[in-house]
Specification:
Layout (H helix, E strand, L loop, with lengths): L11 E4 L9 H9 L4 E4 L4 H10 L2 E4 L2 H15 L1
Parallel strand pairs: 1-2, 2-3
Amino acid sequence: MIGNPDRLIRRIALAFGGIGLSSNLGCWEDHRDLAPDVFIAGEMDEMAMHYVADSGFAAIETGHAVSEHLVLSNARDIS
């Protein structure tokens, strides 16, 4: 986790799989524009973690495979 663990969370940004990597900076900026209190990502690298800290919101990394499983298992219910 990056950020203040006691922070009140009202808005969450989600990114499954490798979307949280710094190579996907456009996704980070799109989410940042939505003003989340916390960004929950499947996988992050060091540069992404610095970006989160510099942007002023918190982040939680869940693990690449775990995040994809949760999203994809729920996607079947959407279609």
